[in-house]
Amino acid sequence: MDPLAALEKSTDAQTHATKVQAPRLEQLEDLSAHYNEDPYTHSQRARKRLRAEKKVEQARAEADKTLKEKYGLPSELALERADDADADAEARDAWARGRAARAEENASRKRKLALEAPLLPAPRPTARRGALASSESTTAAASLRARLLSNSARRTAAGAGAGAGSPDALTLSVSRKSAGGLAAGIAPRKT
């Protein structure tokens, strides 16, 4: 090894120790002395800060408790704060998860209902729909007319034994349209 290179290394090491390491050590010693010079004052300051934070938390807890009692909410329900950004983001995520779960539940319920639903006949073509609709309505009207007449006949027969001539006995008046269909107005009439 070259003696001049070894001398140069030791000179660089001495310069580094005096210019970089010594000031840093002095800074750390000063900081340590500052924290250790009056531990009671530092402890007092820390306790004061913790007491203030505790008062704020207790006030929030009391406000939450009052609100829960007022609206009858469960005590284990966690209320969200407007000033808490983390809770706001967490609440949004929970809402999105809940909405997705509800949508999935609704979709599965619809699929289940679709599988259980009875098969209905296919709709008829629209060109013939007018003719079929009028014949179906005529059939429905005739069925309704027959039921009404049978009900009124039964009431009349039942009422014959219990005072058929009384003014309280009801009969149905069925009027016909000129085209032969059932009229829209079926009204009870006292006899």
List the keywords:
191 residues; mainly alpha; two-stranded antiparallel ribbon; 4 helices
Describe this protein's structure.
This protein is mainly α and 191 residues long. Among the domains are: 1-37; 81-109. Helix content is 71%, strand content 8%. The chain has 4 helices and 2 strands. The protein has a two-stranded antiparallel ribbon. Strand 1 (170-176) and strand 2 form a beta hairpin. The longest helix is centred in the last third of the chain and has 36 residues, at 126-161. The radius of gyration is 47 Å and the shape is elongated. The model is unreliable at 163-184 (pLDDT under 50).
Instruction: Give the termini separation.
Output: 139 Å
**Count of alpha and pi helical runs:** 4
pLDDT averaged over residues: 77
Write down the secondary-structure element order: HHHHEE
Name the poorly predicted regions.
163-184
Structural category: mainly alpha
The global form is elongated
Concise account of the structure shown:
This protein is mainly α and 191 residues long. The protein is 71% helix and 8% strand.
Q: Layout of helices and strands, plus pairs?
A:
Elements: H1 3-37, H2 39-71, H3 85-116, H4 126-161, E1 170-176, E2 182-190
Antiparallel strand pairs: 1-2
